[in-house]
Design brief:
Bound molecules: acetyl coenzyme *A
Order of helices and strands: EEHHEHEHEHEEEEHEHHEHEHHEE
Family: Belongs to the thiolase-like superfamily. FabH family.
Distance between the termini: 18 Å
Strand order of the largest sheet: 1-7-6-4-5
Structural class: alpha/beta
CATH topology of the largest domain: Peroxisomal Thiolase, Chain A, domain 1
Subunit structure: Homodimer.
Largest sheet: 5 strands, mixed
Number of strands: 14
Region (ACP-binding): 248-252
Radius of gyration: 18 Å
Domain Beta-ketoacyl-[acyl-carrier-protein] synthase III C-terminal: 231-320
Catalytic activity: malonyl-[ACP] + acetyl-CoA + H(+) = 3-oxobutanoyl-[ACP] + CO2 + CoA
CATH superfamily of the largest domain: Thiolase/Chalcone synthase
Number of helices: 11
CATH class of the largest domain: Alpha Beta
């Protein structure tokens, strides 16, 4: 088959719910400020025993179930994460074994909050070229481990979770083309170092450091136009779209994108950040799963996905669910 399609989606959220009242025991803030600036009411953090690996496995298994496939059907596993404890081996190699592939190709990608869309683009190309038949793409983060709970410019924002998609062959075109790029000139906008003595001696920190205003400007300006380019690259008119699923960075960023895009009322917009927080690479597949489960989305819907984050990097595509 010359085309690729998302055959199944899955997600896994950690069990611990951290509301804004609890958040305000860590930082000097208020429920009202956090809701007004971000839309977040509560977020999910890992509890004892939950890890980026356990969440990835659960999301991957759910996506395989949804696709009606098993691990043995996979010949590729791609994981996007910045939360894996090891530099090597990749989390993807571990997942490929534990999910029961027969030695599938496996690699991690580092594209922060854009990682799921980067992974989808990779999977689409691999399937379309014939290099792979079924590729599992996972976006997974445990940013609660990487956030400085005393940093009132980031602590309220970030969270944990995993989402996954199985990409496989299709007779009809159902994904892309991807619109992507980077702006390393803004590399300092969101950073997190390895906790190596050399890095720490240079003044780096192993918690996330963010220039919130720089990210906000970029996301509401440049990324809003990138979302528009995703539609034209796919030859899709706004009124043909069913779902808009931007990375769940912040509801105010989503609002600003909507003002730019002028999407019709009929388009359903993802807002899962409200109850999950910003779980980075996981946010888009987690939102898609929630929207399918609630009936807001259905198989066959046309969805505009756009991921953006540290790098700065971005990737987006229109997909048929
Ligand atoms: N609680 C209460 N008040 C706060 C807090 C807090 N946690 N943090 C800052 N403030 C106060 C400041 O002291 C300041 O008060 P002042 O006006 O009296 O001096 C005021 O709020 C504004 O502070 P700013 O730092 O300018 O806050 P800003 O309005 O920029 O909001 C925020 C911060 C929400 C992070 C915003 O910059 C933002 O949304 N940025 C986008 C970042 C984002 O969404 N990143 C997503 C993660 S990266 C990614 O996923 C791509």
């Amino acid at each position: 088959a010359p085309h690729a399609r998302i055959l199944g989606l899955g997600s896994a959220l950690p069990s611990r719910v951290v509301d804004n009242a609890e958040m305000c025991t860590y930082i000097d803030s208020s429920d009202e400020w956090i809701q007004q600036r971000t839309g977040i009411v509560e977020r999910r953090w890992v509890a004892e025993g939950e890890t980026v690996e356990s969440l990835s496995l659960a999301a991957g298994r759910a996506a395989l179930d949804h696709a009606g496939l098993t691990g043995a059907d996979l010949d590729g596993v791609i994981v996007s994460t910045v939360s894996h404890m090891l530099q090597t081996p990749s989390l993807a190699a571990v997942i490929a074994a534990k999910i029961g592939t027969d030695g599938a190709a496996a690699f991690d990608i580092a594209a922060a909050c854009a990682g799921f869309c980067y992974g989808l683009a990779q999977a689409e190309s691999l399937v379309r070229s014939g290099a792979a038949t079924h590729v599992l793409v996972i976006g997974a983060e445990t940013l609660s481990n990487l956030t400085d709970l005393k940093d009132r410019s980031t602590a309220f924002l970030f969270s944990d979770g995993a989402g996954a998609a199985v990409v496989g062959p299709s007779d009809e075109p159902a994904m892309g083309p991807v619109v992507w790029g980077s702006d390393g000139g803004q590399a300092d906008a969101i950073t997190m170092s390895n906790p190596w003595p050399e890095a720490l001696a240079l003044g780096e920190t192993s918690s996330i450091v963010m220039d919130g205003r720089a990210v906000f400007r970029w996301a509401t300006g440049f990324i809003a136009t990138a979302a528009e380019r995703c539609l034209s690259a796919a030859g899709v008119r706004p009124d043909e779209l069913d779902l808009f699923v931007p990375h769940q960075a912040n509801n105010r960023i989503t609002d600003a994108m909507l003002r730019h895009l002028h999407l019709p009322e009929s388009v359903t917009v993802a807002r899962t950040i409200t109850h999950y927080g910003n779980n980075s690479a996981a946010s888009i597949p987690v939102a898609l799963c929630d929207m399918l489960a609630s009936g807001e989305a259905k198989s066959g819907d046309l969805a505009l996905l756009i991921g953006f984050g540290a790098g700065l990097v971005y990737a987006g595509q229109v997909v048929r669910l």
